[in-house]
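ARCHIVE RECORD
Type: protein–small molecule complex
Small molecule: 5'-deoxyadenosine
Source of inputs: curated submission
Record status: active
Notes field left blank by submitter.
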Amino acid sequence: MAIYFAIFKLLLNKNKCVIIFRGRDFMNLPSLKDAKLRTKSEILIKENDYKVPEEMRKIGLGKKYYLKTYGCQMNVHDSENISAILEDMGFKYTDNLEDADLVILNTCAIRENAHNKMFGFLGRVKHLKESKPNIICGICGCMAQEENVVDAIKNKYDWVDIVFGTHNIHKLPFILETSLKQKSQEIEVYSKEGEVYENIPVKRDSKYKAWVNIMFGCDKFCTYCIVPYTRGKQRSRKKEYILDEVKELVSHGYKEVTLLGQNVNAYGKDLDTNYTMSDLLKDVALTGIERIRFVTSHPWDFDDKMIDVIAKYDNIMPYIHLPLQSGSNRILKLMGRRYTKEKYIELFNKLKEKIPNCSITTDIIVAFPGETEEDFNDTLDVVNTCKFDSAFTFIFSPREGTPAASMKDNLTIEEKNNRLYKLNELVNKYANINNQKYLGKTVKVLLEDYSEKKGNLMGYTDTMKLVNVKASDEYLGKIVDVEITDVKTWSLDGKIK
Ligand code: 5AD
Ligand code: SF4
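STRUCTURE (tokenized, with ligand):
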């Protein structure tokens, strides 16, 4: 049994008193060791855990919050929850950092540059706090789940007021209140498998398209990836909650939902109900919502039933993001991806064959430890075979605590950059070739916002192509027929038909 010696170390900083205990459990600090654990314990569904007591509803009155989000769609959606919670506490949103009384950074841990960006921004907040000492600064998201990050915040960034993780967003009012009352740095991060919270409010960024979580966490443990440690065990939401949420969105006039999960194809496999992603997709399609998307798919769990459902229902968009990661079987094995390039290509061809007009995008990592020129050429070969609509490409970034972080890295930064450059050239070539096919065609676009191009609205085709459309405000939120008049590598231009 662990023995916890609480060694009090009173650090008196300016007007701050931080009590540090030896033993991470006392302070609810993140622990890599605990984050790795996967047990057979039942996943608890918590329907009433989010509460804001009356006295906490006044904390933010007359105050403004600024919320900066890094990383993936999951984080974007978490920020929609955080916004709603802060507004329940009386805060109002501002997009001007200088105007804010509360600044929250919702962070991403996936690569080193996400870390650097966050710490860079934190420098700006510190500067602001020097002239406005009452500003409250909070850090949450995946970086808050990392031991080394929280150690750094505790030791070097003692002016940061609150730190909370991905498992306890619903506790934000309490954490904030304690920090304000005690003028203390509050760190409340849990490294655990996790629960499913069903009553967290949401303030959606769009009136037309919505993110809907269908599952949390990931159990795939790809050797390079930090996500299973920062987001916990795979936990699927019960279908009733998901379908109710989609039906409510339909009744509020939403046109599109994106079903979210780290590995959506594995939906339901942790529920013991024999109800999997193909069943869920079908039921979501039957709600009548006009457009359904889903991210992210792992090639491993993509079964034929799912392909058939996508092909059958017109409101399931013919767009699939299917991360390849590498085209070398040797590297795929080292990555723990559990498929070969041949299997990937077989699935790719099946999707293209069975789902008419389907666009497929991917993620690729170059310079994984030990990647040889031959391995890299295998990746280029797969890109040449699949001719992806587009790809997100990355240089491998070692994440502390993951198996790949301790694998031997044999390349210079120059060689890594050269590989990325070469890959990007190829990816861009095929993105452009794929887009060229749209010239002169008429496609359906959901016009969701103003475009950066003056006098234009922007939206996406069924196949997830970004289109700038000359159109007035009255078309906002409508799915319209658009004739494509010009084509670029990353976007299309069009006019209403
Ligand atoms: N280094 C580089 N890229 C990574 N990704 C995940 N972890 C790492 C890492 N350590 C990429 C993968 C994943 C995408 C979201 O980020 O390609 O699919
Ligand atoms: Fe990370 Fe792999 Fe899980 Fe995706 S499937 S979140 S890459 S561990």
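CURATOR ANNOTATION: The chain has three domains: 28-188, 216-435, 442-496.
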